Amino acid sequence: IDLDGDGTISEDEFRSCMMQLVQGVRPILALEIFYTVEHVAQDFKRLKKDLRNSTDELKASMVDFQRMYARESTKMSQNLTEILEIVTALSKPSQVFKAPECTIGE
């Protein structure tokens, strides 16, 4: 019914549809149906292409994110290892901070 594809049905479009129903199928109606089907098929192809492109972009973004996550996880693991080594070293008595032994009266 929506012959111009604008998403609405005008009075002329409605009247044309009603006349076709009354008069039966004519060659012009067959051409209109063919045109509409072709229009829908072209829209479908365009949407399919857009969806494929969006999917490809999403996949590429996911791969980039996974690489970044792996890189940052490695850095974080290294930082935590360094912090653990520092904490372990600080928890042990150190010769650097040990007071020198001295005896009174020597």
For the secondary structure, the number of strands is 0
Ends distance: 115 Å
Instruction: Write down the overall geometry.
Output: rod-shaped
Count of DSSP-assigned helices: 2
| Percentage of residues assigned to helices | over 70%
Helix and strand element order = HH
Summarize the biggest pleated sheet.
none
Task: Enumerate the spans where pLDDT stays under 50 for 5 or more consecutive residues.
Answer: none
Beta content comes to under 5%
Short synopsis of the structure:
The protein is 74% helix and 0% strand.
Note down, in words, how this protein is organized.
- This protein has 106 residues and is mostly helical.
- The chain is built from two helices and no strands.
- The chain has helices at residues 11-23, 27-91.
- The radius of gyration is 39 Å and the shape is rod-shaped.
- The model has no long low-confidence stretch (mean pLDDT 83).
